[in-house]
């Protein structure tokens, strides 16, 4: 009787026990990965930024306040520019005068040297060679020319006077050349300052213009309404007695009225456009009285006048930094060049905070 063949021996399957090396390695790998990620050593998933929230649109009132502030800053910078421009003009005039004087001194020196050369040549022909004397006189070395004292005795009284004149002329020319060099340096420095002042004005006006450009048509209409009512909103003050204008004051007012509607342009003094102090300066010049260029100097151009005592032609200054001026015309009103983008116009003297008033002439 046959028996079935025994089945092949099979090893029982073994499961990795939690304590086996394979399981331990798996746990360590997971822990290590987490630790490395925590240390920022593994690539991280990008964090999506929250969408930017647009800044709230400024109100018309906020735009007006900011534009007013920028234009005030531009007004102050304009006065600084005007002062620098005036310095440059004075320095240029001084430089031109010095250069003209240097040219005249040089011409006289050359003429004196020519006469000395002629005298030396005459003596050479009449009394024989002068040797080194004629060479020095006719040469181009000024130092050698003036250090040979014996030439005076050789050339006689006339030559002595000519040499003395030539020596003095050379000293004068050297001195004026040095002065001209200093004046040129001042002009160049002032021109650099002028460029900085100009840029300061332009920067503020560009920022103000950008704000205005961003307004809608409705917002611009609202802004115009706010500006039109600014005089009524401004705090009032004592009513001037309006004494009669002087002859000079009346002429200044008549000139200012003729400029109504002309544009404000910073740095301008007419006749087609003006800044604030350029207008008042031109008005009083038409009346026969010269005023300084800037508000800071015009405020010193006459005695201080109380608001109650104003009369037409007086200058009214505004803000603590005295950066704006208008011409009083009576009835509590003034004519002024307000700001860039505006035109010469008439407004209440309470349109802006007053600093004080003066009476030119």
Short overview:
This protein is α+β, with helices and mostly antiparallel strands. It has helices at 21-38, 60-127, 132-138, 142-147, 150-213, 217-228, 230-233, 247-258, 276-286, 295-298; strands at residues 304-305, 315-318, 324-330, 333-336, 345-348, 354-358.
Task: Record the SSE blueprint.
Blueprint: H1 21-38, H2 60-127, H3 132-138, H4 142-147, H5 150-213, H6 217-228, H7 230-233, H8 247-258, H9 276-286, H10 295-298, E1 304-305, E2 315-318, E3 324-330, E4 333-336, E5 345-348, E6 354-358
Antiparallel strand pairs: 1-6, 2-3, 2-6, 3-4, 4-5
Helix pairs in contact: 2-3, 2-5, 8-9
Structure description:
- Helix 8 packs across helix 9 (276-286).
- The chain is built from 10 helices and 6 strands, in the order H-H-H-H-H-H-H-H-H-H-E-E-E-E-E-E.
- It is elongated.
- It has helices at 21-38, 60-127, 132-138, 142-147, 150-213, 217-228, 230-233, 247-258, 276-286, 295-298, and strands at 304-305, 315-318, 324-330, 333-336, 345-348, 354-358.
- A hairpin with a 2-residue loop joins strand 3 and strand 4.
